Amino acid sequence: MRVIGPALLLAPLALAVSCAIAQTEDPFAALAQETRPLATRWQTDYTGSLELGLAYVSDDNFMFGQYNGLHEDGVKLIGNFNWNSFSNADSYWQASLTDLGLDTREGRIVWGLREKLRITAEFDSQLQVRNNSGSTPFRGKDNLTLPADWVSGLYSADFDALQASSQQFDRELERDHYSLAISAALTDNWQLDGSVSYEDKQGTGDIGGAIYIDASSGDAALLPAPVDYRTTELDLGLAYSGGKLNLDGRLAWSDFDNKDDLLSWQNPYSAYGSAVRYPAGTGGLGVAPDNTHSSARLSGTYLFSSTARLQFDGSYSLTEQDQDFLDYTVNPQLNISEPLPRNNLGGEVATTTFNGDLVLRPLPRLTAKASYRLRDRDYDKPRDGYRYAPGDGGDQSRSALTVYNTSNDLQSQTAGLELSYRLPKHSRLRLEIEGEQIERENAAVEETEETRITGGFRFRPWQTLQGNLEVAYYNRAADTYQWDQSYYALRDAELINATPDNQRYLNHPQLSQYYLSNRERSEVKLDVSYLPLNRWSINLNLLWREDDYDKSELGLTDSDWQRVHASASYTAGDDLTFSVYGGLDRYESSQSSRAFRGGQEKNAFEIYPPLPQASDPARNWDIDAEDDSLSLGASANWQMRDDLELEANYSFIDTSASQDFKTFGAADLQPQDLPEVETRQHQLGLMGTWHMREALSLKLEYQYFRYDSDDWAWQDVQSNTVGKVLTFGERNPNETIHYMGASVLYRWQ
Questions:
Q1: C-alpha count within 13 angstroms, C-beta hemisphere, residue 247
Q2: DSSP 8-state class, residue 324
Q3: Residues 6 or more apart in contact with residue 446 via CB below 8 angstroms
Q4: According to a count of CB atoms within 10 Å of the terminal CB, is the N or C end of the chain lower?
Q5: Which of 31, 45, 25 is nearest to 643 (CA)?
Q6: H or E element in which residue 165 lies
Q7: Beta 262-266 vs 143-144: how paired, if at all?
Q8: Which helix (H) or strand (E) holds 494?
Q9: DSSP for 305-320?
Q10: How would you label 520-538 residue by residue, b for 16+ Cβ within 10 Å and e otherwise?
């Protein structure tokens, strides 16, 4: 994010530097002859530039500074450096450093031999800041403990020492990325390139954990989660460029290393036995496992003739994970009679892709493209049964409750034909037909087939008006929905045989997963550009999309998306440009579900009264959701004088989300509509650049940022508001930030 502010504190420095430069009769004579924007001029006319200054942020924040390093109040250093040298006829140097005073600094240095060799070294530091207004009673990093005076209880409201023992913590993630790349021309036709990179990501995130015997009633807590990742990547490529044939082959390898294996936390609740409740009880979560990934890719183009060419791109990759398993539970006093079936997963996932296009021009105005796409994902891992200890809250489960790991193989094939016909006046008609078939393993639907038909018309009736209209229709058909497939894939035969066949499901049999369901999609897009006058440009973008899940009784049943975006720009002359834009997005969806208990109430197939809950449509509930987003903005650039440039920009974003519930007669189902959630963001930026000398400029910047939200999930919700969930108690973002900065920019030739 580029930000701005007053810089009077640097004015004496600017004057001192300017006095040290040799005076001319007219110090602005060169500027009067050259009015190109400074950003363009110093990149092309100067060997280098150095920018130094100071900036001030008015307050701590986590929305304004979420990604730009400006999350803390106080004074910051502005530091940017660019340099290049092409003085040697054979070799050249380039170097740049940006944001030197922030945690988002980055740098790059390049050395090369013209058209022969290029070596690039880079570093990139990033910082992500999340809502830091919450607090937690937990201490430590990967082994979280509670203070010695902690007061336990059955519910979070019973934690009498919570407020006194809670402390704020930083939810920040720092990333440092280093890379070295080389590109070399071996011959006129062969090019070699390779790179090696290393990334270190550290900080604190968040995760939810629970201790339980029955997952429907766990003792839960939000936990600060450590992040300590290392990623190493290697890449090697060889490219061939011939008269008709062009090839690019590439090998890649990466290694992900998580320095933490386990996140454990002391149980703050007093439920369950002495081995589980506070202070002896502990919960544990496995974190992201170490893994390696290797891949090979080949892409290319072959020109048969001026009217026929073949394009292809294929790859094969293998991901492996064999990190040692953790124990069934972190509570040593719980009874574990059967050990893990193996020490590690020993799993592999092989992914194969292929994209091929044959492009023909059988007639001068007609172009045809036949395409084929393949994506194949193959799991290779042993299938074992795991007798887990439920939620670190009880002894190892009985053998009937053994859970099995499953494979989720997937193969997708798509074939398509596209015809494009060129019309007079730079217009073009396009028709594309695609058919996709996806086969899945251990999914509720084994196969889905989708037909996609798209028609397009690119038009330009006049020199000042051009546009593109696109109309599409998608129809996805699914096999018979096998609602019991996931139950059979996960559960043990002993439990399956003991369960009535009308209860062998995880999701209600009438609830269809949206990506496996029959769906009809209709879509219309229109993009128009209009130049009513020489100095005006107007753009309009429209989108309408409707999804109808016409065979789904429960689950997502329909959704709609409408978008209207417009922009206009005006150029008053060589020294003034102005632009405005606005956009409205609306997304609406409807979904249904059914409320029911287990046991006898889980029978979903009874048709005669009295109906069990799972069979009773009167226990259905619907939710209609609507999300709206409004964005407005304007910007202006004014070359007020030859030596003075001014910039201004403003943006406004308003989002709202509402959810309306409806039930169908069950007396014990009386849901309330959730409150509407609305967020607003205002951002104003002003910047001025005074070219004091040909080689010296003074920049003043100011930015105003205003953000507020009324999310009900945070509004007046304390850490112990929810009875069985200990939260962070964050507040809604409500920020008013002023950023001010001033810097001196010096350029040399």
A1: 9
A2: B
A3: 439, 440, 479, 482
A4: C
A5: 31
A6: helix 162-165
A7: parallel
A8: helix 493-498
A9: ETTEEEEEEEEEEEEE
A10: bbebebebbbeeeeeeebb
Q: What are the tokens at 672?
A: 């309330």
For 569-620, the pLDDT digits (tens) are 999 888 999 999 999 999 999 999 999 999 899 999 999 999 999 999 999 9
With the C-alpha atoms ordered 34, 36, 37, 39, is the resulting torsion angle positive or negative? negative
176 near 127, Cβ under 8 Å? Answer: no
Identify the DSSP state of 11.
Answer: H
Q: What is the Cα–Cα distance from 156 to 160, expressed in whole angstroms?
A: 9
The reported pLDDT for the residue numbered 115 is 85
Q: For 220-263, what is each residue's pLDDT tens digit?
A: 999 999 999 999 999 999 999 998 999 999 999 999 999 999 99
Give the span between the Cα atoms of 165 and 139, in whole angstroms.
10
Instruction: Assess contact for 291 and 321: CB atoms under 8 A.
Output: yes
What amino acid occupies position 713?
A
Q: How many CB atoms lie within 10 A of CB 243?
A: 7
Residue with tokens 């409408």: 562
Q: With 80 as the cut, is the pLDDT of residue 17 above it? A: no
For the cut 50, the answer to whether the pLDDT of residue 734 exceeds it is: yes
pLDDT digits (tens, 9 = 90+) for 544-560: 999 999 999 999 999 99
- Extract the tokens encoding 11: 């004015």
Under 8 Å between Cβ of 375 and 410 = yes
CA pair distance 207, 728, nearest whole angstrom: 11
pLDDT in tens, 636-646: 999 999 899 99
